[in-house]
Amino acid sequence: MTAGVVIVGGGQAGFQVAASLRAEGYAGAVRLIGAETHPPYQRPPLSKGLLLGKMERERLLFRQPAFYEAQGIELVLGETVLAIDRGAKAVTTSTGRVLAYEALVIATGTRVRPLPVPGTELDGVLYLRTLDESEDLAQRIAAAERVVVIGGGFIGLEVAAAARMLGRQVTVLEAVDRLMGRAVAPVISAFYADLHRGRGVELALNAKIERLEGADGRVTAVRMADGASHPADLVVIGIGVLPNVELAAAAGLACADGILVDAHGRASDPAIFAAGECTSHPNRFAGGRVRLESVQNAVDQAKAVAAALLGKDQPYDEVPWFWSDQYEVKLQMVGISKGHDAQALRGDLAFGRFSVCYFKDGRLLAIDSVNRPGDHMVGRRLLGVGTTLTPAQAADESFDLKAALPAR
User: Fold this and answer.
1) What pLDDT shows up at residue 387?
2) What is the pLDDT of residues 68-90, one digit of tens each?
3) What is the per-residue DSSP string for 346-360?
4) Least packed by Cβ within 10 Å: which of 152, 256, 265, 343?
């Protein structure tokens, strides 16, 4: 077998590189190395459908094992890559095997950010990143009465919503003064705070945690810096993620909040590429380099990497988009709102169907939509091709957003 392409990482980006290579006619060897024992699977349902029992494990898989055999993609599961020898063009895995490569793709993704307080080693304190962790969490929620979620971002709130829908007492502790503060406007943060409180969730903002307390090795409460205590049978920590760049950095590749790549996913070694959440890439929608945590980014960047590997360079230049499901409410985001200096509200907060359009110097940057999928889909087109949409037009319900699209 020729050296071919070795892909490190069995998540969304790693899978997509392998699938795209075969779809575009690549005939060389393709090896996909994944740390988990499961074939590549979807992660978004781990904090939603899987917790609620609405999705089975088999439905999470991108493809059944027969697909990889038919496509000639070798799955190396339950192993990690310990080192990259750039000179020899080879990687060494945790089982001691050495795999040569003509081209290497690093798609190592991210890992959970640990909570730096005493007590996180107690039984009943969980993080959520993998399929096994989600299935464990689902069983523990079923047996719990009082669930405390630390972190008011997307993962934390999705877990809180699932636990509440399953009838558990739920408390969410957020370190800053609003929910999802790094991602959305204050009006959306306030809407979601009201949504969760309306469903019976106790919210504590500006929450400073001192330690997790336990008895007989099990968590019993979260102790706050002000002396308050939140009883808990189960604590779920969701305070963000960290990019897995250690392997790349140890090999001497340029890294800075991610593996530095160009628009084609090329790293600082011409034989090495990277894709997904572990990368920092140039992005015109961000106005510079950015590291994105989304399915869209993983898929589209992986396709650009596969194209580059085949000598069919197609720069990654897709509009970023994201989503979050909490209860029956869907939040859809397109573009990157960071740095905006104006915003326009479209729709009706009282009915829970609205969008917030973000602008900078009069130019549309992003649209966040709550239960308004039409705005989201048009927003993806508007940002992709450029638009002259003004804040006044965005706020005017009688104005058709499609009218702001350039003439064909």
Assistant:
1) 81
2) 999 999 999 999 999 999 999 99
3) EEEGGGTEEEEEEEE
4) 256
Q: How far is the C-alpha of 325 from the C-alpha of 187, rounded, in Å?
A: 18
Q: What is the Cα–Cα distance from 64 to 28, expressed in whole angstroms?
A: 22
Residue pair 22/16 in contact (Cβ under 8 Å)? The answer is: no
Q: Name the phi and psi angles at 209, rounded to 5.
A: -95, 130
Q: What is the value of pTM for the model shown?
A: 0.95
Question: Could you state, in order of their start, the residue ranges of all structural domains in the chain?
Answer: 5-111+241-309, 125-237, 328-404
pLDDT > 80? residue 408: no
Secondary structure (3-state) at 222: strand
Q: Which CATH number fits domain 328-404: 3.30.390.30, 3.40.50.2000, 1.20.58.340, 3.40.50.880?
A: 3.30.390.30
CA dihedral 138, 143, 145, 148 (to 10 degrees): -40
Please give the DSSP secondary-structure letter assigned to residue 244. Answer: -
Say how many residues make up the chain. Answer: 408
CA distances from 309 to 161, 245, 273, 301 (A): 42, 21, 9, 12
Going by their DSSP bridges, the two strands 209-215 and 218-224 should be labelled as antiparallel
Q: Which residues pair with 236 in a beta bridge?
A: 126, 149
User: What is the H or E stretch that residue 220 is in?
Assistant: strand 218-224
Pairing of strands 272-274, 279-283: unpaired
Q: Is 309 helix (H, G, I), strand (E, B) or coil?
A: helix
DSSP 367: E
90 SS3 class? strand
Residue 165 has what pLDDT?
Answer: 97
Q: What torsion, rounded to 10 degrees, do the Cα atoms 110, 76, 255, 305 define? A: -100
Long-range contacts of 295-298 (CB under 8 A, 24+ apart): 295/12, 295/42, 295/43, 295/44, 296/320, 296/321, 296/322, 298/11, 298/12, 298/13, 298/16, 298/107
